[in-house]
Amino acid sequence: MDKKKKQKTKQGGVNRREFMKKSAIAVGTAMTSGLMLPGMVKNASAAKRDYILIGRPNPGTGPLASFGEGTPWVDDRVLAEINKDGGIYIKEFGKKVPVKVKVVDTESNPTKAGEIASRLIVKDKIDLMVFYHTPDTVNPVSGMVERYKIPGISLDSPLEPWLEGGPYKWTFHAFWSVEKDIVPNYIGMWEKVKTNKVVGILMPNDPDGVAWSAVFKKVLKPKGYKVIDLGRFPYFNKDFSTHINRWKKEKVEILLGNMIPPDFTTAWR
Question: Are 112 and 106 in contact (CB under 8 A)?
Answer without folding.
Answer: yes
